[in-house]
Amino acid sequence: MRYLGSKVKLLDFIQQTITKYGIVGDSFCDLFAGTASVSDFFKGQYDIIANDFMYYSYVLSKAKLQNNGEPKFERFTREYKADVFEWLNSQTYIPDEKYFIYENYSPIGNRLFFTEDNAIKIDGIRFAIEELYANNFLSESEYFYLKASLIDCVTRYSNTSGTYEAFFKFWESRALKEFTIEPIEVSNCQLLRHHTIFNKNSNELIREVRGDILYLDPPYTVTQYASAYNILETIARNDKPAIKGVGGKRDKGSCVSNYCYAKKAKDEFEDLFRQAQFKHILMSYSNQGVVPLDELIELARLFAKDGTVHIDNLEYQEYQNHRSSNKRNGERLKEVIIYFEKDLNVIKSPLNYAGSKDRMYYAIQKHFPKHIDTFVDVMGGAFNMGINVAATRQVVYNDINPYIYQIVNWLLSTDKEQITQNVENCIQHYGLGKALEAPYLALRNCYNTTERNPLNLFVLHMYSFQNYIRFNSKQGFNTPIGVAGYSEDLKNRISHFVPRTPNVILSNLDYREVDYLTYPQGTLFYFDPPYLITKAAYNDGKRGLDGWSKEHEKFLYEILSMLNSHNYHFIMSNVKEHKGRTNVQLIEWAHANNFRIVEMGLSGWRYAKNEIIVTNIE
Ligand SMILES: C[S@@+](CC[C@H](N)C(=O)[O-])C[C@H]1O[C@@H](n2cnc3c(N)ncnc32)[C@H](O)[C@@H]1O
C-alpha cells in the first residue's frame, strides 16, 4: 500500500538490527503502526502490541494481526454460496444520500479523487461490509479483513500522488480502471501469539503498556497523517464528517501529531523515552527528520543503560558524522535505526527513610510532564525521587534537615568503594551487629560528643530503631537500637546511588526559603512534605527541628498556587484520608484551584496509607 514512511522495504534492516544487537524478547510494541507492515512481519516471532491514532491504521492492524493469511469467510460462503470478494465486486450499487465518497470526492462533488463509478462502488462496498457484519455473516476478524482490503484497494484507484490533500486535475490511468476489491496481503504464520491492538495517542498508550521491544516509527516530516489520509479515515470510520476546502478535508480532530512540529517533537520523544517500560527501544528515523539526529541521540543517552546509544543506517554502517544532521547540507536522505537499552532500574537510596518514594516512583512518574528541564526535589529526604529523574538540564536536591542533607551530600560526592570501606571499617571498629546494644551506644556516644560526621550518623541509622534519625532538643541523636543492620542490599544501594541526571545541585533550605522563581520554565517542582494527618518519625519528636503544622501546610499550598500562577508544574505527594482522619484543607484547596488529585494506592507496610498526588499537570 502506498503510505508515507511505510517500512515495507526496511523490514530486513529492522530484523538485521535486532540480530546485530542480540535483542531478545517475547513482546514487541509497534507504537506507530501505520499500515501494520512491521507488526505483520514480526507477528510470528513476538506477542505484538500495535497502535496508531488513525482509525484506518487500527483497521489494518486488526486485519493483519487477527488473521493468518486470508480468512475463510465460512458463514458468508455457507449462506451466499459465493466468494465474498467476487460477490462484493458483482453487486449493483445505487447511490443514495449515504454515498458520501460519491457525493464529495467524485466529479459529482466537483472533486476528482475517484471516478463516479469507482466512488459509487467504494461507498457501496463499505456499506455492504457493514451490513454483512451487522447481520452476523462475518466474524470480527473477517470484518476487519474486508475493511482493510477496501482501504488497501482504494489507494490503488485514487487520482492523487499518494496522499489525499489534493487530487490531480486530469485523470491518472490508475484512477480510470474499474475499482475492484481484492484480498489484502496478510502474512501466514502459526497464530500462537497473543496480539493486542490499540487506537490511541502514542504518548498516552506508552503509560499503559510494557514489554520487551519497543519499535518506534514516528512521522519525521511536517506532514500530518490525519490530513494526508483523511479520506481513508472517513472510509474506515464510515461516518459523514464535516469537510472543508478544495480538497474536502475532514477535520483532524484529536489526531494532530506533535511529532510533525519541530518545536514539539523533541518533548514528545523525551516523554516516550522516559515513560517506556520496555527493555529495548528501536526507533526508525531519518537524518532529515524534524528533530536532528544528534539531539535525539543525546536525549536517548539520558534514558539508556550506561548512556549507550547505537545508530545504524540502511547501508548497515555505523552512523559516523553526528554533526552533519544539523546542517543537512545536501546530504542524501538516510533512514536510520536508533537503538538503546532502556535503563529501567529504580535507584533506591541507601538511606532508609520514613516515607521513601522508591516503590511509588513509576506510579508518580506517569504523571510527569513531557519535558523536564529541571527537577527540584524540594523536600528531598533520602533523595529517592530526584535520583531517578532524568532531566535535560539538572536535578536539584533540597532538604531542611542538615543531618539528612549532609548524609546525601556525602553519599553522592564520595567514591562508592571508599564509602563501603569506611562503613565496614566503622562496623568492625565498634563491633556493631543487629540488636547489639553496647557497641551501638558506644558509636552513638562518639557521634554525639566528638565525631559528628555523616559516616557515623549513616552507620548509626542502619542499626537504629526502625532506622529513625531522631534528635533530642540539644541535637543529640537519641534513637535506641533496632533490629536491622548493614547488609548486601545496603552495599548494593550505596554503589548504585548515582543520579540519572549528571548535573545535580544540593541545598539545605527551608522550603519557604527556596528561590522558586529563579528556575527556568520547564522546571518540575516535587514536594514530599510530612503528612499532616499521619504520624511519621520526622513529625513526632520533631528531630530537634521544626515540626510540621497546619501553618506549614497552608504555606506550602500558597507556594504551589504561586508556582501554578507562574506556569510551573508541580507534584505534591500526600494523603487524603488516614485512620478516619481527612485532610479537609488539602481537598478544599485542590478543588478550589482545579488541581488534580490522583490516587496512588496503598503504601507503607506498617501503617498502610492511601497515598495521593496533587498536581497541576493536565
Ligand atoms: C512513519 S508512519 C508508520 C509507518 C509504518 N511503520 C508502516 O510501515 O506502515 C507514522 C505513523 O504514526 C502515526 N502517528 C503520528 N503521531 C501519532 C501519535 N501521537 N500517536 C499515535 N500515532 C501517531 C501516523 O498516523 C502514522 O501512521
List keywords for this structure.
23 helices, 18 strands, alpha/beta, seven-stranded mixed β-sheet, binds S-adenosylmethionine, Rossmann fold, 618 residues
Written description of the protein model:
By secondary structure, the protein is α/β, with parallel strands linked by helices. The protein folds into three domains: 1-52 and 192-218 and 264-344, Rossmann fold (3-Layer(aba) Sandwich), CATH 3.40.50.150; 70-185 and 220-256, no CATH class; 358-417 and 487-615, Rossmann fold (3-Layer(aba) Sandwich). Helix content is 36%, strand content 15%. It is built from 23 helices and 18 strands. The strands form four sheets. A seven-stranded mixed β-sheet has the order 3-2-1-4-7-9-8, with helices on both faces. Helix 3 packs across helix 8 (140-157) and helix 7 (116-134) runs antiparallel to helix 8. Residues 316-329 and 537-544 have low confidence and may be disordered. S-adenosylmethionine (SAM) binds at residues 3, 5-7, 32, 34-35, 37-38, 52-54, 57, 201-202, 217-219, 225, 257, 259. Residues 3, 5-7, 32, 34-35, 37-38, 52-54, 57, 201-202, 217-219, 225, 257, 259 line the site of S-adenosylmethionine.
Summarize the structure.
The chain is built from 23 helices and 18 strands. With 618 residues, the protein is α/β, with parallel strands linked by helices.
Query: Which ligands appear in the coordinates?
Result: S-adenosylmethionine
Which ranges are low-confidence, i.e. pLDDT below 50, for 5 or more consecutive residues? 316-329, 537-544
What would the principal axes of the Cα set say about the shape? elongated
Helix count from the secondary structure assignment: 23
Average pLDDT level: 92
Q: Can you tell me the CATH class of the largest domain?
A: Alpha Beta
* Total strands: 18
How widely separated are the two ends?
38 Å
Instruction: Please state the structural category.
Output: alpha/beta
CATH fold topology of the largest domain:
Rossmann fold
Largest sheet descriptor:
7 strands, mixed
The helical percent reads: 25-40%
* Order of strands in the sheet with most strands: 3-2-1-4-7-9-8
Strand content: 15-25%
Named CATH architecture of the largest domain: 3-Layer(aba) Sandwich
Radius of gyration, in Å, reads 30 Å
